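Course assignment 3, question 2. Fill in each field.
Student: A.L.
Task: Predict the tertiary structure for the chain below.
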Amino acid sequence: MRYLRLIDLQSINNITIVLRLVMAVILGGIIGFERGRAGRPAGLRTHILVCLGSTLTIMTNQYIFQEMGAGDPTRMAAQVISGIGFLGAGTIIVTGRHQVKGLTTAAGLWATACMGIAIGIGFYTGALVGCFLIAFSTVVLHRLDNYMLSKSKVMDMYIEFNTNTSINTIIDKLKEQEIKIDSLEIVKPTYGASSVVAAILTLRLKQKRNRYDVVADICSLEGVEYAEEV
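Answer field:
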């Protein structure tokens, strides 16, 4: 500890170079581990590389400013924050049923890049607290988000119909079950071999019901080939 007090942890030197890069690997890995375990396209290695790259970028900027006494020490950081968008956009996909996936992963990559900048400039407290809160958001709040979704009265459903059934017939049957339709979009069928039309519907339940029971009830309707919540 006495030796560490003699080292200027805010400037660029051999000790801080190793310290910051190791911190980038560890903290970036903590964020990426959860994403990788969840099977997301940007997992452990991607988050580590993003954090490591942003840390190295801001350290290079600080080194230039420190050694040459010229330049803007924040210019490269600004480029990292804006440039990481192309990587985040690559993790966002729109499925065939118009589902948008990857937003949390994209936001996590951006936040990890910002954390790397904090590490690279020597803002250790901000980086450590930021890592904890990013991990908290992706793990704990994910469970809370799922819990709130399970209690919601609004459901987005993807339904495929066979040739002998019109959409109006299905809508009437849903209304008989006290299910209100907020929106309806006709899309191309994906699964059913005998399906000729499919739709994405936003349903509003009159009272709280088990979401699996609602899906099962819709699947049991005559003329419905396939149904799932999206």
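Instructor remarks: The chain has nine helices and six strands. The chain has a mean pLDDT of 80.
Grade: pending
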